Amino acid sequence: MDGRPPATPTVSEGILHLRELLLFLSVHLDRAPGVMWPEHEHPALGTPQRPEALDGLAAELGLRTGLVASSGRCSRTGGGPRNPAAHLVIHQTEGAGMWRLRDDGDEGAEAFRHRLRSGEVLYIPARWSWTVELTPGAQYVVTDLTPPGS
């Protein structure tokens, strides 16, 4: 430790994070839930978060996946009403949350459970329902990826 504050993520870190995220989505998109432990942080996810930076991250994801994308910051516990055609990318930005997922096409019990910690990313496929229990002060960014016309 040299007493300097931690480095702020740079634009190149954002590009590297986007690459990691796109590779992760190439494996999981429309298949199964997944968790990513990124090597690089995107500047849009830092504190304080700026809405225009989150919009930029969503726009990049939309452009590169061919899906319509939008992002927002959340700090609520519970489940979410959602467009059944939307895929979700969750960036846990502060604290932690216990995420429980279930394939809506499967009448079975809970299919996926994971304690997502700050800095981790969770992919929730379309047609999967979710609930989350957050630790106090926890926050996450959710990006919806929806096929055009849905």
Could you please describe the fold and organization of this structure?
The termini are far apart. The chain is of the alpha+beta class and 150 residues long. The chain contains 2 helices and 9 strands. The longest helix has 18 residues, at 11-28. The protein has helices at 11-28, 51-65; strands at residues 34-36, 68-74, 78-79, 87-94, 96-103, 112-117, 121-124, 128-134, 139-146. The strands form 2 sheets. Strands 1-7-4-9-2 form a 5-stranded antiparallel beta sheet, covered by helices on one side.
Helix content: 10-25%
Please state the average pLDDT score.
Answer: 82
Q: Would you report the number of β strands?
A: 9
State the shape.
globular
- Which band does the percent of strand residues land in? 35-45%
Largest sheet: 5 strands, antiparallel
In sequence order, what are the helices and strands, one letter per element?
Answer: HEHEEEEEEEE
Q: Give the radius of gyration.
A: 15 Å
Regions with little confidence, pLDDT below 50 for 5+ residues: none
Structural class call reads alpha+beta
Widest beta sheet: strand line-up: 1-7-4-9-2
Q: Could you give the distance between the termini? A: 50 Å
> Treating each run of at least 4 consecutive H or I residues as one helix, how many helices?
2
How is this fold's topology laid out?
Layout: H1 11-28, E1 34-36, H2 51-65, E2 68-74, E3 78-79, E4 87-94, E5 96-103, E6 112-117, E7 121-124, E8 128-134, E9 139-146
Antiparallel strand pairs: 1-7, 2-9, 3-8, 4-7, 4-9, 5-6, 5-8
